[in-house]
Design goal:
The chain is of the alpha/beta class. It is built from four helices and six strands; from the N terminus they run E-H-E-H-E-H-E-H-E-E.
């Protein structure tokens, strides 16, 4: 039996100062600096995802644009998915379970409550609330994402831990 690794990143802190729909909210200055802290931390651990899926919301795209250059990934493994603009977690789970079995390490940029719900449902560490720009890494013993069951929480990296 193989293992699959999943890295979930919640978008950084967004701004409410603009009169835009939720999907178009940009990052706050603090969100940008937190994303930079996380980017540097992830760059040091040599994260090597096979596929990256990103919510198409503005704040999630901006977060990924700050972090991904530090990971030195091939742009062809990146896809944008409106289904990841999900808050309940049902669509997040659907996107993960429909990932190709050829992918051994999936990186997803998404939203809360979906991320907190997912890590508490499938991981081994209960997290009250994955903070903005929080990273949670999980591992699953499975050959296929479609057979996803309980996994193990490997690590968390939160901006407050890097300050």
């Amino acid at each position: 039996m193989k293992t699959k690794r999943l890295t979930l990143i919640r978008h950084a802190k967004s701004s409410w100062e603009f009169d835009v729909i939720d999907h178009e909210r940009p990052l706050k200055t603090r969100g940008k600096s937190d994303a930079d802290l996380i980017a540097k931390a992830l760059g040091k651990i040599n994260l090597k995802p096979d596929a990256i899926k990103i919510s198409d919301a503005k704040r999630t795209l901006e977060t990924s644009h700050i972090i991904l250059p530090y990971l030195n990934v091939d742009q062809t493994i990146i896809t944008y998915n409106h289904k990841l603009y999900d808050f309940s977690g049902e669509l997040l789970l659907d996107v993960i379970k429909n990932t190709s079995p050829l992918v051994n390490h999936l990186l997803v940029f998404g939203h809360n409550y979906a991320i907190t719900n997912f890590v508490n449902s499938y991981g081994t560490k209960i997290i009250d609330n994955v903070p903005t720009c929080g990273v949670v890494m999980l591992e699953f013993v499975t050959n296929d994402w479609s057979n996803l069951g309980n996994g193990s929480t490997l690590d968390t990296i939160f901006p407050r831990d890097l300050k």
